[in-house]
């Protein structure tokens, strides 16, 4: 076994450069995590200098290896590597670590131009994004690779910490990865035995090797400070292509810090001037300048870049030949990579589905998906073991499985959180507009991934069905109450709750066009009549809210969403009989409505009509903004109950009669 | 090995009774999950008739065995067993399965009087509650058991499904259970190979035995339809007391249904009249009456109850003797079981801590916990690997570990979701007012458990520190924005964001007194001055909001929470210089404020002062209710950023100067 990567001197020099870049940056910021980069520097060096394939001048190269620092708190490790490897990460950025408007925030933030493949920090997310990336890779490879044209043929490397592996999401994602045999994944588990509270032994006794064998992974163990052993293990892992690999690298946190190595103190605080001085002296490192990169190290990475360039260029010329040899496939490639959506998709879908017949909006969504799948090659998704209920399968399109990468329907399993992270990973990978599906109530299980999609501005869609108490018999554990307001409160998320089939089609069109953040569709279990009038009118959804019924004299504005729009229309008819003029507004998306100008908003909710009632079978939290000081909200201020949904509508006051009676009482007082 | 439990006839008769009670109830409701109870009836029968120790006349007996149906969708299995075992579950209730106001909702809802130990249905929760229960049991046993007095000496049985084990929370909880060696836990894994989308092979290939061995569990495999084998495996599991046990029971869903067994169709739909007829004929079961319980089966359970009664009575007389022998311990027992909190706890704590010195509210909370731990013997908790930051450790009280059950501080590990479920389990068990702790941002990881605590009305506390963008350098991944409104939207939850040390003490007192649902404390990372004036004034927190600064003429009401109260006071001073009269309201808890009468609410926010500004470094979602039609909200409508927190306060406009300028501009326009 070779004992060095290049030679002892160069190896030491480079590893120390990585360590002290991290140490100096954390010290300058007076904030951060020096211990992880110091502990991980040896194998990370081996990975980047011998294995990882990249082109810093073209960070978006589709066939690059992916590098994910799931242990995002060790962000300086990533920034140091990007700096050394020649990405657009000058030393000035390292010196601005954790400062306002720098590209070196406390935890890595997705920035594909800089080689930052995903946002990490919330533990378990990065390793789970990798699973989605590998799924996307598998499918793209199956779609595009041809004999002699391995367009997609790369690896996805992850550095994960004990925290990543303690989090439940790692179970969901790694179990799925094992099931699907995602052989491009190579995880380096930084097993440093230290967590924030102290030794991991305080809380964590898993036999990690056995756990991952149970998932069907290829498992190796190394001394994480033996660089050549790390390289050898990576080579072995790369040779195993039918299942994911994990390399358990025993490391020492803050390796090289004379008094703070192997201590929790080194996890999340600067080492301090004295410790740094001692560490640098121990390593024979100059105390000044800080952020020092020896010439040999610069040359080493330049040499590595030069080694890698021909591979990059070979790929580019292969791809040029591919365009000639497979023009149709190349055209599809462009469409998928561009995530192209036909500009008239809404009209095509609206003309192909029956918008008149009463249908649950989940069923309407199912019809739309069948059409959209034909029109948008990038579309791809599945459900967390609820496809028969969420209606998200594309019929006849097969299952995406280990042996069938061209199958469409993804079976995420009972793994909502893992699904959310995998969907994010698919979107990050490129080529796909992914969707996931579960019941709205279980959006709670995957909230951190929705937030990260919003933070990264990812084009993802989630189909959340069974969107209210009208789930019925399954009872309060399955009946969303606070989920709608809770999701609306997340920045950069569009929550759309369509009222009927036509609105559902428009909602999906909005979702397919919303490239800059997640779109969440809240869909009914129960049948709903066509309330929006005609399909053309349903396009009002694009403006967030629009008038669906009106009166000459408006005594009251009823603002409803989803299944409550038809109930509001029923109430409108009753009130009309009693001489009360109501306007019914369908407000499927607050976020879109808030984006409209004042004139439009005033045209929908007239400022001079102060009597307003919101009607939504959910927590009324957040509705005051629309109903105003004199308005009321008909909603749910308690949890639901188990009973047939029509009984619940009566008991909780969501029938047209009950709504009309409440409105009448409200107007009379 | 015995081949039967009682005799073949009785065994068959009882198992069929269980099956057909479930089948008939689902059919009558025309809704539900018949397949699971049918598949699980054999081993469940063995468990209840040979192992489980209970007294249906005293369902709260502290030393009863616990039975948790983690696979809550199979609720009719539980209801059938409770019916047969003599709990207050008459056949009329079974006939009202899934109907309005029945005690037999679609998924089991916590009802200790009926023997329903926890609410299940959202997968992975029940098995994770069991871990908390076993932790509580371990600690109570260590506190109270004496030679000859095994007051606490029972088991916690769980039936879990593939869905339970696919969910990430099961990883967190079962890993923790293995770490702590919680030997009272015996899980029966109903391995029926069927999930909603079809065969579990579609998504799930874990080697479950190996996975649980990796956690340090004792693992057995059985044919789940071999009743005597199940009983033998239970006996073996019960003999292993140093680690949790799992029995992997291979079963066939809808076992006994001639055409629907082993099908996904039997999972979540009634079998249908024809299939039921065929199944009953196959079993030699009368078609009528439905809900049939043979006399022999009634007698069998009566005999079992008679067998168990002496054990119950022996425990009661042992406990009576214990009261004599250990009066002080018995007194402590009563206090803990009653979860007694001194009525003057707030005053004691306020007088023992320094309310004047500037402190982060997380640090204030740490001081309060030290005091509360002396005053409330039921108090118990820990942190998800963030104790040095959440300040939740009780100093010098040791760590709760396998070998140290009397240690106080629980190390939940990096397992927020598992922590939430364990905390719920501890509260369900009795004797403890448990608390968990993590950063507010990571409340997202544990939302389903907060919701369940609210739904069950559990007395639990969560300490959520680092409660705003003022986390600073860690950046947007760690900076809560939407978490406050998202948590406020949950019914029956109190979210309290105190402004200083005195408010923090009152907030903790409220949390300790709020027996009917979770209290969530949102606490600052950064130091805050004493803004509430004096400790007596801080008691205004009990009413949700109160005036902290006032003016003779009120031009504007500034409503702030937490760290923004002192910023608002700063703005108040600046405005005063400019001749603008402001009132500053501290509103630490919207829910408590909403509970006050109109007169009080109007006295705090005068209806005639329409110029109102909310100031909270979080999403403004939900504030319209308080600031009204003419009001504005100073909040965060985007994600945060990585920078020192004072920089963020400037950039995002939360300095006194920036607030004053905004208010001035607002009043001028």
Describe this protein's structure.
The first copy, chain A, is of the alpha/beta class. Chain A contains 27 helices and 21 strands. In chain A, α22 links the parallel β18 and β19. Chain A is elongated, with a radius of gyration of 28 Å. At the A-B interface, α6, α7, α8, α16 and α17 of A face α6, α7, α8, α16 and α17 of B.
Features:
homodimer, alpha/beta, 21 strands, 13% strand
Strand order across the largest sheet of chain A = 10-11-9-12-13-15-14
Low-confidence stretches of chain A: none
Main beta-sheet strand count, sense and barrel state of chain A: 7 strands, parallel
Strand content of chain A: 5-15%
Q: Specify the structural class of chain A.
A: alpha/beta
State the end-to-end distance of chain A: 87 Å
**Helix run count of chain A:** 27
Helix percentage range of chain A:
40-55%
Radius of gyration of chain A: 28 Å
Instruction: List the quaternary state of the chains.
Output: homodimer
Q: Please report the total strand number of chain A as a whole number.
A: 21
The averaged pLDDT of chain A comes out at: 97
Short structural description:
The structure is a homodimer of 669-residue chains. With 669 residues, chain A is an alpha/beta fold.
Annotate the secondary structure layout.
The structure is a homodimer of 669-residue chains.
Chain A: H1 8-29, H2 35-50, E1 66-69, H3 75-85, H4 91-95, H5 125-144, E2 156-161, H6 162-166, H7 168-180, E3 185-191, E4 194-195, E5 198-199, H8 208-214, E6 218-223, H9 227-239, E7 245-250, H10 265-268, H11 273-283, H12 295-325, H13 327-337, H14 345-352, E8 359-360, H15 361-375, E9 379-383, H16 387-390, E10 399-400, E11 409-411, H17 416-429, E12 433-439, H18 447-456, E13 461-465, H19 483-488, E14 494-496, H20 501-513, E15 519-522, E16 527-528, H21 535-538, E17 546-549, E18 556-560, H22 563-577, E19 582-586, H23 590-595, H24 598-604, E20 612-615, H25 624-627, E21 632-634, H26 645-651, H27 656-668
Parallel strand pairs in A: 1-2, 2-3, 3-7, 6-7, 9-11, 9-12, 10-11, 12-13, 13-15, 14-15, 18-19, 18-20, 20-21
Antiparallel strand pairs in A: 4-5, 8-16, 17-19
